[in-house]
Amino acid sequence: MEAIATRAAANVASETAKGVFRKVKLHVRYAINYKKIVEQFDEKMKSLIAKRDVDKINEEANKVKDLEDKAKAKCFLGLCPSIKSRYQLSRKAEDDGTTVDKLLEAGRFEKVAVPGIPDAPISAAPENLEAFDSRKEVFNEIMVALKDPTVRMIGVYGPGGVGKTTLVDEVAGQAKEVTSFGLVVKAIVTLTPKIEEIQRQIAELLGLKFEEKSIKARACRLSERLKKENILVVLDDLWARLSLDEVGIPFGDQHKGCKILLTSRDKNVLTNAMDAERTFELGVLKDVEAWELFKKIAGNNFEDLELRSVATEVAKRCEGLPLAIATVARALRNKALHEWKDASRQLQKPSPRYFTAGIPAAVCSAIGLSYSHLESEELKQTFLLSCLLGRNAHIEDLLRWAMGLHLFDGVNTIEETRNRVLTMVSNLKASCLLIDSYDNEHFSVHDFIYDVALAIASRGEHAFLLKDWPDEERMEMFKIIILSLTSFKQLPHELDCPQLSLFC
Predict the structure, then answer these.
(1) Which of 27, 42, 55, 194 has its CA 20 to 30 A from that of 9?
(2) Judging by DSSP bridges, how do beta strands 74-75 and 80-81 pair with one another?
(3) Are 279 and 157 in contact (CB under 8 A)?
(4) pTM, rounded to two decimals
(5) Cα distances (angstroms) measured from residue 123 to each of 161, 259, 326, 377
């Protein structure tokens, strides 16, 4: 019995010794094989970083790097390696390596979905102009040119309000599906282009965040990103030559996978200033097309003969311009006969208040009619303020101005004001006075509507914008004055504006 107990105790001791030895061997190998373990960890980290962009990964890698630096140090006057540091490094690398293995295993999917880069958003146009024969022909010709490897730059020209932006938006929407473009981006240039703004529009669509401060450095960064794939760049509303190099758009031999689609009112800007190889003219709608578009937006087939007669006359006053048709038809949607008759009179004898140099009378009248039919004074003031903020304004900027000016009654908090602002912007888009911009945080406005809005504001009692200094009687009426500084050589010595709440 004693012998059995002795043997059992010996076996236990033996197994215990083996276990202890295994543990000792395990820990010793951390110090001996530290270099191999760290190299394996580095390879695993490279694989993981290639799949994930997570700050935590870099944090853990840096911890291992710090331990590696310590392990390279010597102990005891530099005569022998630091066993403790090597042990800590090897142990940390192997533990983290096991975690990396699990992450890599979890990341093995047959298909991987990643958030895509948003394409240039299509403007919320009230019509599909491609459905009309006059538009379908131009649309098809542009699509053919996009597929032609010898054509790098394409231009669309025509008068303002004719639908150039809507057409190229539709082209952009289909280009990615039927051509080799991996990416489509768009920027609005305007009469007074700002390179930083154009760069920002394109960068936001690419999901690119600029850390660089200078235009040149941003251009280099943007160019590097755009060179990574075949891309269609839409530049809307050109008035003069735009330097693609200055913006950072690689073109020609710099990037043969890049094509440019331009719009302008002036064909010479496209052919002479920008050297477009193919240009297409977009004219006004034919009479039949204009009437069909008018009925569609008005939401009425006009079966009532008297109403049909008035509506036909109103539609003719729009002169085939989609912008005029959209604003008038939307303003008169679901209106009574007497309102249609009044609108017809206004279009025949428009108020000079809405006339703006360089804009067709039909468009000025149409915009003025749409403005006058806005349902509330709050909505009218929001519209004028929105246009004051520029062609592509940020909703948060409109929010700040609205709060500062106490534009809305019955709202007290930032959230309430933001909800009111979003509602107002939505209503103005429904009225075709504002349109979508390149992302959901901005809104845009057609340049004709923009100019007419500024004309209304400068002549109105609120004086959102002044180009000429008014007389004393008018000054007493003003609550808000925002100056166009380029128009004034000298300011008056004093102001007598008892109702003034803002002057800038």
Answers:
(1) 27
(2) antiparallel
(3) yes
(4) 0.65
(5) 14, 21, 14, 26
